[in-house]
């Protein structure tokens, strides 16, 4: 009996070991397979696909009205393009126009978004109130600490300019930003938000209520929830900096009654631009208007829209010539103060019944369009992705879930039947592919405001980028034209040339009503926070002739597709190059 029991025990031990071994082998095999598939996806995403894989083609390219087809003779053998509009009805088009590298890229973007969000949430710990007692406000910073104040988020006292920085906000950074714009006070809230103005908030709060630690400065207080840590900005060379910040807007015909058109005025002998600009900055007005010895401060309005400039000689004409001295013309300058009539933004109070996309190819100006829409409507825009740099600059919809319907529209670069049909309607923003490719390449290698180095342009990365992304530019538009339910097509170049008419068209498409003064305010703040400073000129042509032939074919295809859907074709400046 004992011998039989021993054999049974031995068998069970062997069976247990065998099961353990098989389980471990199964898990190892699964892990190796997952790693191999992940490596394959990343390789596909880095290489991209050829244009012939992304878009099917025919052997000939007909002219479509925006360029002479003769300019595209002698095509390269590998550059094949879809030009037969009947092919748009093929059920497999979404597979042909959706490269595998794009799917892997979208998955990678989602993983990065989740990783950034978890990292961001781990940094949200508030500063203990006991630790604030050791903060020496006046000793550590140039400005004078004025105290902790209560602030109503709906009616802010410090509303001259607003900045966000979830990673690097410091007291000095906020003070310098406000001083650069000629404000007297800098207020910090929530540890990451900076507000500027020339008047102190009326309601003081207890010092311990400013309990949020600055994100970029340990131990320093940066306000709290509806609480501002306020500093008076002290800048030794403030005068010189403010003079550099004044921008000449031009000579304009003056309104009939300047005193009625502008809310503040100053009459002074020997009036200078600096004197008038400083006076208007203190009054928190973005425009300084000079007529003779008279200085007026105000905003662009329907009576004074700053659209039709006059010859500068008319503003400098002598009295007997009927010039500025007789009150017909005036000089206009932009002060460092921000126009705040359109800076208030919020989330929708109730969920939107219409789910609207703001769709574009990367580098086509989507962020700029979001800036315009938010300031025109007063509501935040959302995003299919999560970009901390955009959130830092005030795009609070980045943090909101893209399907929450609390935003006026949602940014997306996605294409494909499933991704498009999720939306009820869409604003389709299209930009010249040559400009879009350059902008996206700069962003990819140097951030939102930087420029890629010359060695990067001359490396193998640039040709591979053009091959992959040029086909994506075309397939993105074609997919939205095919699957989009209700579209408004906006061309980036036309939006720049005719901002107010095109912006009004976008706002009406979003079923919103705005005033003319608010649109003029948007125009006065048109650049936003992500405009690259100037155009960095390269001493070489980045596009080879082979690249141009490829891109031009895509342009002709997209133009024909737009006309086939009764939309306006692409602007003539797109081709030939």
TrEMBL record:
Signal peptide segment = none
Task: Report which superkingdom the organism of origin falls in.
Answer: Eukaryota
Gene3D superfamilies noted in UniProt: P-loop containing nucleotide triphosphate hydrolases
The alphabetized UniProt keywords are: Repeat
Where does the record place the WSC domain? 142-234, 245-342
**GO MF entries:** sulfotransferase activity
For this protein, the record's InterPro entries field holds: P-loop_NTPase (IPR027417), Sialate-O-sulfotransferase (IPR051589), Sulfotransferase_dom (IPR000863), WSC_carb-bd (IPR002889)
Q: What family classification does the UniProt entry report for this protein?
A: Belongs to the WSCD family.
Name of the featured protein: WSCD1 protein
